[in-house]
Amino acid sequence: MTATVTRLDEDDWERLAEIRLRALRSDPEAFASSLAREELFREQHWRMRLRSSPWWVATPQGAPAVGLACLIEEPGSPSTDRHLVALWVAPEARNRGVGTALLAEASREASEAGAETLSLWVREDNAAALRLYDTLGFAATGERHPVPGREGLVEVRYVRVLAPGDAAGA
Q: What DSSP line would sit under 79-144, residue for residue?
């Protein structure tokens, strides 16, 4: 599937809201937030998200967005690390290169910002995501923690060393 990955700006707040709420409807267990919580967000909250962190959407030509990703500076992490959050690919677009394309843009942005590593947390039972991260050169750090509010579920931390101009091994 060929999808164009676009970085959103503050005026794209409605687009971010639409795809984020779709992601929460489709895969509520994949996120630390909830649909009920984010349905209450107003324009100012969505705009604030876009001002504070880069967000990307993946869109096939002539179709609605099928993927979403966000990059942050995770509190408590080294300044040379960027952290991937909110990576989501619509079920109909999975295993078709969308996640790789989103990760390439996030990797490029992190590298251009001077980051040396890209990190993320992923549920240990998310086999498809683990395969993607393994394929793109991420490695488990051994760090684990329970998923908040989801008894018995555990997330593991993955990290990948970035090269200058990195594009997720592309």
A: TTEEEEEEEEE-GGGTTTTHHHHHHHHHHHHHHHTT-SEEEEEEETT-HHHHHHHHHTT-EEEEEE
Orientation angle between helical segments 13-26 and 43-52, nearest 10 degrees = 100
Amino acid present at 118: L
Predicted TM-score (pTM) of this structure: 0.91
Query: pLDDT per residue over 84-136, tens digit each?
Result: 998 999 999 999 999 999 999 999 999 999 999 999 999 999 999 999 999 99
User: In the structure encoding, which two tokens stand for residue 146, read together?
Assistant: 């329970």
**Phi first, then psi: what are they for 21, rounded to 5°?**
-65, -35
Q: Is the pLDDT of residue 156 over 80?
A: yes
Q: Sign of the CA dihedral 76, 112, 124, 31?
A: positive
Domains annotated on the chain, with CATH:
3-161 (3.40.630.30)
Residue 36 has what pLDDT? 95
**Residue 150 CB coordination number (10 Å):** 12
Q: Which residues contact 75 (CB under 8 A, 6 or more apart)?
A: none
